[in-house]
Amino acid sequence: MKKLIAMCVLVTPLLATGAMAQPAPQTTPATPAMPAAPGPGDKAVPASAAKAPTAQQQKMKDCNAQAGDKKGDDRKAFMKQCLSAKGVQPTKSQQEKMSACSKEGKGKKGDEYKAYMKECLSK
Question: What residue spans carry the region label Disordered (predicted)?
Answer without folding.
Answer: 22-109
